[in-house]
Amino acid sequence: MIVSITIVRYPKRYIPLAFFAMAIHRFPLWINKACTFWKLMGCGKNGTFDINPDYQQWGLFAVWKDEDDFRKFQNSSFIAKWWQKFTTEQWTVLCEPVDAHGKWDGKEPFGKPKIKGHEGMVGVLTRATIRPSKLKNFWANVPKVSAIMNSSQGFITSVGIGEAPFIRQATFSVWNSLEDVKKFAYRDKEHADVVKLTRSEDWYSEELFARFRIISSEGTLMGKNPVAVGF
Fold it and tell me: What pTM was computed for the model?
């Protein structure tokens, strides 16, 4: 199993085409038997986890049977040709799930991987469906958590993505090592306090957490490859 996270940027004049793509790109993904799970997504401002959308930046999160199937999609699919014609930048991270728990739309898109002994860069996906009654508290805490993550040891980059404005949100981040992830997740007091708040106030109706081994980082976003280290 291989997971691809592709982020593309459209020029401003093509923003209407970006919205159109969110509708018509569903069909080729539906009929692609090699793609076992997919989500077309929008991005936060400048690609960050932000309540304000970035109408130039959009994403595709997809799960493939193997890397060959992804390469066929990348080289010859309708969606890939659309991106080549209408977008100015494309960035794709390929990765392998090593641990996951929780569900996405009632599914476990990665199964139950438990791969131990992984070293090197780590990708982390956190996604949730936020209860409407908890939206105010959730978004009030986002700037604090984002600031902590961006200044944490070992943090490389992150992108904020979402299926639906405000309610169905996700963050994909890349770190130098699993130890760096653990320090941020469990040892930073401010972050730990927010995590406790999500539990005590029951913010989410559904959530998923997954870790990945980074296989490759290809293309550019905002003029550079955000995960060029090690490749």
Answer: 0.91
Count of domains in the chain? 1
Q: pLDDT tens across 80-112, in order?
A: 999 999 999 999 999 999 999 999 999 999 998
Q: Which residue type is seen at 186?
A: Y
pLDDT tens for residues 163-207? 876 788 889 999 999 999 888 877 667 767 777 878 888 888 899
Cα torsion through 214, 216, 219, 223, rounded to 10: 50
Residue 225 lies inside a defined structural domain of this protein: no
- Domain limits for position 129: 2-217
**Six-digit token string for 28:** 């080729």
**CA–CA separation, 163 vs 119, rounded Å?**
31
3 state SS of 21:
helix
Which element (helix H / strand E) includes 193? helix 189-200
Per DSSP, 12 falls in state: G
| Three-state DSSP state, 50 | coil
Residue 101, both tokens: 């728990």
- Residue 18 domain flag: yes
Residue 112 lies in a domain: yes
Looking at residue 1, its amino acid is M
For residue 192, the domain's CATH number is 3.30.70.100
Distance, in Å, from the CA atom of 90 to the CA atom of 48, rounded to the nearest integer, reads: 16
On whether the CB atoms of residues 139 and 160 are closer than 8 A, the answer is no
